[in-house]
Structure formats: C-alpha cells, structure tokens
Amino acid sequence: MVTNPEQDFVLKTVKSRDVHFVRLWFTDVLGAMKSFAVVPSELESAFAQGMGFDGSSIEGFAGCRESDMLAFPDASTFQVLPWRPEHNAVARMFCRITTPDGQPFMGDPRQVLERQVQRAQEAGYIFNVGPELEFFYFKDPQGTEVLDQGGSFDLTSLDYASDLRRDTILTLEKMGIPVEYSHHESGPSQHEIDLRYADALSMADAVMTYKLVVKEIALKHGVYASFMPKPISGVPGSGMHVHQSLFDLDGNNVFFDAKDPSGYRLSKIARHYIAGLLKYAPEFCLVTNQYVNSYRRLVEGGDAPCALAWSSRNRSSAVRIPAYRPDVECACRVELRSPDPSANPYLAFAVMLAAGLAGIEEKLELQEATEDLDMFATPHSELHQAGIATLPDNLGDALEAFSSSRLMREVLGEHIHSYLVEAKRREWKAYQNDVSMWEIDRYLAVL
Hints:
Elements: H1 5-16, E1 19-27, E2 33-38, H2 43-49, E3 51-54, E4 68-73, E5 79-80, E6 89-98, H3 109-122, E7 125-138, H4 162-174, E8 179-184, E9 190-195, E10 198-199, H5 200-220, E11 224-226, E12 240-248, H6 268-288, H7 294-297, E13 307-311, E14 317-320, E15 334-336, H8 345-361, H9 380-385, H10 395-403, H11 406-433, H12 437-443
Parallel strand pairs: 1-6, 13-14
Antiparallel strand pairs: 1-2, 3-4, 4-6, 5-6, 7-9, 7-10, 7-11, 7-12, 8-9, 12-15, 14-15
Helix pairs in contact: 3-8, 3-11, 4-5, 5-8, 6-8, 6-10, 8-11, 10-11
C-alpha cells in the first residue's frame, strides 16, 4: 500500500484524469530521451520495486552481460501530457535507474546531477539555473528549408512561427513549467524560449520536457524543430546560454554584494565561482558542446563566445554578468554563453556546478573583466597573446582536454567518463575519415 503522499497523489490523479498509460522517462548518456509505458495497475509495484528493463540497448548504459536495470519513477515529476487525448490520457514521470541489487546505476545522468546538487547543499548552497534554448523550425527533417526570413525580436508577418511558440508555451505551462520570454532569434526561422529559473534538477527535467514539447508541437503544425547547434552555413547557430546562481539555505543569493567596490555587485564567492567556470571550461566543453557540429558554432570570427573572459556589457565573452536589474539581489547571476542545446542538461548542469564549486574551494582569483575588446573579431592568437584563453577549436581538442581531466572523471564517474571518451573518439575518427561535399566542390575539378 502506498504511504508516500506524492505517490498517493499520482494514483488518485491517474483515476480522476482517466490516465491509461504512464510513460517512465530517463535519458541515455548523450541526452536522448528514453521511455517505456506502464499501465496504472503496475504503478504501486513500480514505486515500491521499480520496473525492469534491458539496459544493453541504451546508449552508454551496459553490455549484454550486465543489462538488467530497474527504473524507479519519481512521483514529484508526474504530469499528464497535454498533447495526448484527454480520454485514455497519457502521463509521464522521470525515473532514477538502479541495478537489480538496488545500487544507483553509475551510468544514469540524472543521478550525476543529483550528486553534485547534494554536494552543493552540504556546502550550504542551492544551485539555481535558467537556460535560454535556441532552435530552428524547418519544413521537414530532410533539409534546412526555413519558414521565414525574420530576425531578432521580429513581430511581423516575417515571424511565421508565432503560433508555434504560443502553443509550445501554453503546453509547457500546462505541465507546470513557467516560461519567462519567447521571441524570434537572429537567424531565419530561429527561435528562443527562456524558462524561468529553478533548482538545477527540476530545470534539467524541464529542459528535457521542453525539447520534446517543441518537437511535438512542431509536428502537430506539420513542420520540424531542430536543436542542432549549427544547421545552416552563414547564419548564427543555436546556443543554450545558462544563467546560474548559488543561494544559501535561507534563500539569500550568495553571489550578490551591493558593496562590491568594482561596481559589478559580485561577492567573493561569485568571483571564485566565475574563475572556476573559466578555468575548467576547456575540460567540460565536451559535455556542454558534445558533437562535431557544436564546433561549427564555436569558430574564430563567429558570433558565439570562445574567449574565456568575463564581462557585464561584452557579449563576446564566455561569461557575462547580466545587469538588467543590478540592484536586485535575486537577479544577480552568472551567464555561461558557450553551451549549446544538444547537450545532456543533467551532465551539463553538473559539470558547470562542479567547476564553480572547485573555483570556490580552490579560492581561484578572477582576472579583470574584458569590457571593450570585441573578442568575436579578434584572432585567437591575439587573444592568447593578451592572456585570454579560448575554448577548444574542435571536438578532437575538446576530447583531449576532457579525457585527461581529473575533475571530469570525479564528477561524472568512471563509467560515464570512459564511455564519453570512447564514443567521442569514434565520432571524431569517423568525421576525420569523411570527405565532405565542400572538399569535392573545391578541389575535385582543379587538382
């Protein structure tokens, strides 16, 4: 018999809302959503004993000889899916994955983030994040034919997708995910919907839901949504700027210091945290920018930040301190601008938090802000001469920094760290062995 109030609420809601299927959601190591459905009569057993599944078919989970896994649904994540029928409805819950003996499975990305959140809490901090995810709408998944030629913040007939964004936001809000902003982005048919900040674990669940909702609503409108970092040459790629802050257990923002003599209103803790992000960004770049295509966006001379510097006004720095409401304590935050939306949010938030906490623990000193240099237009060689490091130029360089990182191995655990090294090594090798159409068009007829 269920005694947990949240589980009891789920069972009652399933009956009252005519829910006939409950999808149990989790992600593989790379962040692809995985799911299987149970009928309501199995829910009490699922809460108490977990539901068994074959982990050998999940990317990065286990081999065929150690494939038995259990999924335990988290009742606090229960939501009815608004895009499914009201009768014979469908709901979902996120899960934690264990081995048959009840031990946490080390390949479960959600538990990686849980461990880092717990570590922060033991140090007296709550980690809040607010991501800004960009994406493109295309006519179909077979190509990159755009739906409009709009630009940043357009509100005209150019913004063909206003109804798409509206339906997406309404669906998210029905699922208890508050949205702060939405608008057309700078690229044709490129859009952004920003989620209101929340604790990191809730937000990672929300990001996974958000990405699925964007795609589901697009399909209902007969188009395709893509979170590929750089799908079109010559136009801006899609980022996932992650706003982040640490609050103490009493609800005070420990990043805020109204008496900061520099005028940035940053505490010493915030400065150490930013220094940690900047120091370890090359090592965690493989997680926040995990595909070959991610580095098409992070190119020298592009419009995505590669320079490991910080500022308030300068959007060409990897870390920015937004100053929309500089005197409001709860608004004080750090924005990491380099990640892209293809990242697994559980792992991405975990490595950012770990880097920031390392900066606090190591009492890293923060370099001076870089406010006036256009680092988009400055060659990397000149940045390096000026003492400004840059992110890895490609997946291969990111792989080398990640594979040798002690911090990444500690944060992710040996299982996930080793898997990512092997998987990304295969991806990089496959990319290097491929002859692109650019090369054929450029060289075949002249060499």
